[in-house]
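Bug: token stream looks shifted between consecutive jobs. Job 1:
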Amino acid sequence: MIEIKDVRAGYHDFEVVHGVSTRFDLGQVIVLIGPNGSGKTTLLKTILGLHEKNSGQILIDGVDTDTMSPKERAKKMAYMAQNRNTPSIVSRRMVLHGRFPYMTFSRRYTKEDYQIADQAMEWADAEDIADCYVSELSGGQQQKVYLAMALAQTTPVIFMDEPANFLDVKHQINVMKLARSLADSGKAVILVLHDLRMAMKVADKIIVMHDGKLVCEGQPEEVFSCGLIDTVFETKLRRFQTDSGWQYYYDE
């Protein structure tokens, strides 16, 4: 479980995240939504230790992350970033990078590392591109490789920033099913999504950010009822009841 207490972060003298407090519990899919520039990615990077916070506290299972080494944090939290470099490396080797936190001084992968990487590629539907160079893959195929690398890290918490980018509809649905499966297995899965309909469908908890502040959080029903979504996104999100639950749509 991760607790975030009054966290502030930014770049130089420009503060982007303004006093955010929340928590991410195991066994849940938590979705961060908000317009571009609302501070979602900056908050994620700050939690992960990839960006220095200005103030506040971040706790993992009650332990302050300021007291943890990068390797210790990497065994707790995995991150699938939205923007990445595209190296000229074979996909399977790229996925094995997720095993770095567990490597010993020998710096050699074990049989278990290879097994975990292969399992991660299967979960990400990337087995067929295991021997392809990442730099030669399409955007959607690269997305699968980076998802597999994050899964190979075998952490109790996994952050995914726009994991459905570049994917066709079938694979977007598969990624959301995977997120649900990971949460049901006991992990905390934190997603940044721009598709409000998808967020409402997959999330156990939704966090709405606007202008660097957390303005609403709760179950999808609670967030929809709080009335802020239309204001924050300058759109009209509507819904209707079906046999399989609420279906959401944009009313132009």
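Job 2, same session, no restart:
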Amino acid sequence: MHSRRKHFDKLLALLIAVFVVGGALIFASAAFGLLARGVSGITSAVFTHIVFGIGGGLIALFTAYSIDYRTWRKLAPYLYVAAICATLLVFIPHVGIEHGGGRRWVALFGFSFQPSEALKIGVIIMAAAYFASIGARIRQYAWGLGGFLLILLAPALILLAQPDLGTLGVIGISSLALYVAAGARMRDIAIVMCIAIIILGALTLTRPYVRDRVVTFFLPFQSQQEEGYQIKQSLIAIGSGGFIGRGFGQGVQKFTYLPEAMGDSIFAVAGEELGFAGASAIVVAYLLFALRGLALAGRAPEQFGALLAVGIATYLASEAFINIAAMVGAAPLTGIPLTFVSQGGSAMLIALGSAGILLNISRYRNARRGV
């Protein structure tokens, strides 16, 4: 199948630019609120987000954009193994950092990072390369369902041990979308869904922190000063914004009680300051990003590019929708960041790098479709 090289997709690039610039402004507003509250470590967190996250992320974006996306297919097994090995570092004493009940960070040479962020794109590249290579054999149990579960096995075990169910959920959703796009049978998809439900049920019964989050989701106001505190404050912030919001920088909750204003709860900051209209615009922007990514997948000249685009678009958009759903009480809290906006050097760097790969895919078109 022939393809022709064109300029990058302008709509996709515009959406990424809006997320980065608009996200930086929202982040600055949230950071100012925490600074006024006298929260410790704000200067360091802001520096890491701006320099390592946004600055390093933009370098990663332009670097990934300049690399022919087909190169990642050759590197897929090595990137996958490297991401798994890096994530295993969290279990090494004096290297892995425990925070908030989980071991998700690694500190080396004075820098800390979250290797599971790299695991997301590593699994997506590996899955895209694998399913592109097996072709029609995906309809066979051993190659299709067996291969899918085998790719997810090591990441799932590592993330369950950390524990980091939010990251595991994002990897599972993006990989499943890729698997479906590759031609998986409905029977196999149903089996995957059943396995996911069984695992989630087992975790709810055996792990108290999972059970607490599920109970909080169904009864958010039962423990308003404990597990339900964050969702309560988030809903207060979003609700007080009204239709047009209090105005940029004029939010109140970030100065008082809203937890994780620069992280998980940053959508609540945006909702209070920009109101229903602004919050809806953010949701629409993420929806457009997802749809544009899927449209580019349909125009890719060969299967690997199409599957990679589906995986990346789903990964970046699902993170955002999971975060937003949690902040409005439509999903349990997971700790998943708001894509391109929330505090997190590692998350921002990998997200922008992944967006760079998607932009590179957009440069190639199926010549026979004339698009």
